[in-house]
Structure formats: structure tokens, C-alpha cells
Write a structure and sequence with these properties.
Layout lengths: L3 E5 L6 H9 L3 E6 L12 E4 L5 H10 L4 E4 L5 H10 L7 H8 L1 H9 L8 E4 L2 H11 L3 E5 L9 E3 L5 H10 L7 E5 L4 E10 L2 E12 L7 E6 L5 H18 L4 E10 L2 E8 L7 H10 L3 H9 L13 E6 L5 E2 L2 E3 L1 H5 L4 E6 L6 E2 L5 H5 L2 E7 L2 H14 L1 E3 L1
Parallel strand pairs: 1-2, 1-4, 2-3
Antiparallel strand pairs: 5-8, 6-7, 6-8, 9-10, 9-12, 10-11, 11-14, 12-13, 14-19, 15-18, 16-20, 17-19
Length: 395
Amino acid sequence: MNQRILIVGAGGNQVEIIRKARDLGLWTAAMDGDPDARGLPEADAPVVGDIRDAGAVRHAARQHKVDGIYPAAELAVEAVADVAWELDLPGVTPEVAMRVRNKLAMRETLALKGGFNPAFRGVHSADEAETAAQELGLPLIVKPADANASKGVTRVDEMGQLAPAFERAHERTYGSGTVLVETFMEGDEFNVDGLMHDGKYILGGMTAKERSAPPNRFDLGIFMPPLEPPEVLQPVQNTVVAALDAIGFRNGTTHVEVIVTPDGPRIVEMAGRPGGGRIPTDLIPLTYGMDFMADSLRIALGQAPQEQRACERGTAVYWIPAKPGVVRAVEGIDEALALPGVQDIVLNIEPGDVVEPVIDCVTRDKLGYVLADGDTVHDAIATAKRARDLCRIVT
């Protein structure tokens, strides 16, 4: 590839994406609002700028004369779509980007087709939230309409929890002030990562997950492939494809979360960017021998995908826990790394740092995680959990 690409988002989740672009022979610019973002040194041209600002993205795209713009981070999706549309580069339309970024807009669009949503309301005040709760009934999920990384997401089981849940979600919105109140969906949850090329869906892989206990909801561990049989998983994929079609998503990378309720699969959230947790860069290639990120970047440059699945193994990521406090020591890392099947251990904390209560993906990711693989998913889960337990953050 003798092309130039701008990757928007250069944090820890995007490092491997930037490396993949360079491995493919792409001249790569990477943009992030944090001048110390880990991915910036990996690029041919590091760009410091607000990834939510279409003007800043436009300036970078024009300055570096890129052939494509890649939305690597959730908060960049709308700005990237705006600029790609203006510069006649590959991507989704601004309207579609808004639908995958704003959870209320997504719900309202999917509601026109039916069968995708729980009952929901969009609210802007605590009083409106109370009215919605009375109409929908408990339990509920309360979350910001336009945040990311499980920020401000709370399960509400009694009315006394509603007002603080609303305030927490409202504080996490990015300008819209809109909070989504929806019926809690009981069931197993899956991540579904795939590509759309000219309206055709290509499955990268599905991950199952272990989730935190209420009231906060975030992943403690993920693994691929899921343990469920095809008769459970195929309807999940069918629901994802139908939902993407309903919102008009025709070209790009998608990460969709689905819960299998007693009434069938229902959409939790949709995203127009690659998933986190090393799903696109590591879990899919290690599980299926498929270079998902290569095709993802090709589509962003207007090229056709080329990759195929070559095998099926197992992979797992489990996050390392810690009690709140000041870190005194980090132990067991070398022992964990020596386990057969451990592919990587990432630690984002060291002695002297402060551990906050883990309430979402952001506070979780400040600690670290273990990535493991195996001949089967059972092997991968067992190895990842053993390695996780060996890694001790002492506070």
C-alpha cells in the first residue's frame, strides 16, 4: 500500500492499530488530544489535536494529504465522518455516524423497524427521569446518550437510586445533556465485531464476557469464541446485520453489543469504530488466523477486503483487579508471563500511583490486563484467569 492514512485516536487501545497501518506500508499520521498518548510516537506524523473537533481533523487531513481517515476512538466517529464526507473520502455519512454515536438517536432509528430495543426514554432532567421510571418500571439502566467506555452507566433497582444515577449519567454527557433510561435487559451479552463493505457484512468475531455486579456495568473479562452453540449465536449475528442495515451503515468497522433476552437478541449499543480489549488487533487474529485490522484499514481507504478465516482456537482477556489505595508493590508479573499461552500482560500502574474505585472501563483500564490464547477457548480462559490471579497490585 503506497497510501496515506490519518488515524484519529492514539491512546492505549489504538497503539496496535497504528502499528498495523505502518506494517501494511501505509504512511501514517495519528491524532490525539493528549500529547503523551502512547500511540503518537508510533506514527510517521504525530498530531496533537481535539479528536472531536471536525475542524482540527480537517486541518490534519489536508495538511498530510491523506487518502483515508480512520476513526480509531469512539469520540472521533462523528468528526471523522464529517470530514470524510466533506473531502470525498471513504466512510459513513455524518447522519449515520450520529446514529451510532448517540444512543438515543440509535434507539429511535431502530424503533422504526421494531424488535431491536428494550423500552426506553430520552430525558434531560431528574423529573423526566422519574416519569420515565414510573412508565417503564424497575429495574432500569440509566446512561449518558453520548458517552463512551461505560462511563456513567448505572443499574437502578429502586426509586431512591434514580436521582443519583441520573446525575451521574448527566455529568458524563458530551454536550447533549441527554440521558437514556431503558428497561434492564436480562441475559447473556456478546460483543460482535465486523466490517461492512458496500453494504455486505463480514463477521470478524464474537466475544462473550464476564460482567461486573450491579450497580455499575462493565466487562471483567472477555473471550472468543463464545461457549454457546450456533443456534444461539446465529440469531445474534442476524440481529446485528439487520440493525446495521436499519441505521444505514454500509462501509466501515463496527462493534455492536447484544444481549440475548427471553424475547430474543436485543441491541445494547452500536459503534462505528473497532472494539477495545484488543479484540480487532489480537483476539480475532489469534482465534481465526484472520488479519481483521488489515481489512478494516483497507475499507477506510476505499479498497476491498481480502482476509479469510484460517483456523479456530481460543483467546481471552481478563483485567487485573486491585483495591483502592496507594500502590505499594506490583507482584507476580514474571511468574504470570511464564505461563504457556500468555501472550501479553499490560500494566498501567506502578508503586506510588493511586488506585481509584473501579466503576467503569476507564477506571478498570488504568490497572491492566492479561491476554492469553489456547487450543480451545476453555484453555484460554483458564490460562488468562490463572495469570490474572498471579498478578497482584498491592495497595
